[in-house]
């Protein structure tokens, strides 16, 4: 998916003064790192890093983003707003038929993803929302650090709650969103477009 220089500016990550990402390491390198540090050993175990354990070869993408969901306590029973990022047809359809979000309610974005190999750190989810080509919102949320799930299962990350806009002006037109999962080194793991509109009801 190509981007203009201006669009890339929209996705410039927030930086912390003085912070410099460390060089990427393999799972084996992490396993051997400070082997006698007990707290580090617990952290590595939480990522599924065990010294001497067999590690899958690093082929294909490090991360596969599976779904993006919108969750809200105000959603009617049985209603589920989920977008399968791996389904190109669904991604095309959601641009033609935007997701409907009720105005003035609390909701949060949730994504599920798999870490296929290696350790990911400094990975963040970003989304830029535009209406009529003008940026109206930008969200940036850290995913954290993860290794491949020991059972091959997906991770689910819930982001901070937000409140959807309200009022007649907010309900006019469609909001176009570009979402991206990227790390500190600028490696993009997923990049997709989707749309939503605001209404009085879900």
Automatic annotation (TrEMBL):
Domain of life of the source: Eukaryota
Pfam family, one: Rho_GDI
Spans traversing the lipid bilayer: none
InterPro entries: Ig_E-set (IPR014756), Rho_GDI (IPR000406), RhoGDI_dom_sf (IPR024792)
SUPFAM superfamilies: E set domains
Region annotated Disordered, chain positions: 1-23
Membership in a protein family: Belongs to the Rho GDI family.
Job description of the protein: Regulates the GDP/GTP exchange reaction of the Rho proteins by inhibiting the dissociation of GDP from them, and the subsequent binding of GTP to them.
PANTHER family: LD16419P, RHO GDP-DISSOCIATION INHIBITOR
Protein name per the record: Rho GDP-dissociation inhibitor
Species whose genome carries this gene: Wolfiporia cocos (strain MD-104) (Brown rot fungus)
């Amino acid at each position: 998916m190509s981007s203009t220089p201006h669009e890339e500016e929209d996705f410039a990550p927030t930086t912390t003064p003085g912070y410099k990402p460390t060089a990427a390491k393999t799972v084996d390198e992490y396993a051997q790192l400070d082997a006698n540090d007990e707290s580090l050993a617990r952290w590595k175990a939480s990522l599924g890093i065990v010294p001497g354990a067999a590690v899958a070869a690093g082929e294909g993408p490090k991360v596969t983003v599976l779904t993006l969901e919108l969750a809200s306590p105000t959603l009617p029973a049985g209603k589920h707003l989920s977008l399968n990022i791996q389904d190109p047809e669904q991604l095309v359809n959601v641009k033609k038929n935007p997701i409907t979000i009720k105005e003035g309610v609390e909701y949060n974005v949730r994504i599920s993803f798999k870490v296929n190999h290696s350790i990911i750190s400094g990975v963040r989810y970003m989304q830029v929302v535009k209406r009529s080509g003008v940026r109206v919102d930008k969200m940036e949320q850290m995913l954290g650090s993860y290794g491949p799930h020991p059972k091959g299962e997906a991770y689910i990350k819930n982001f901070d709650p937000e409140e959807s806009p309200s009022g007649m002006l907010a309900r006019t037109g469609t909001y176009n969103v570009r979402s991206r999962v990227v790390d500190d080194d600028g490696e993009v793991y997923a990049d997709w477009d989707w749309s939503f509109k605001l209404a009085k009801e879900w």
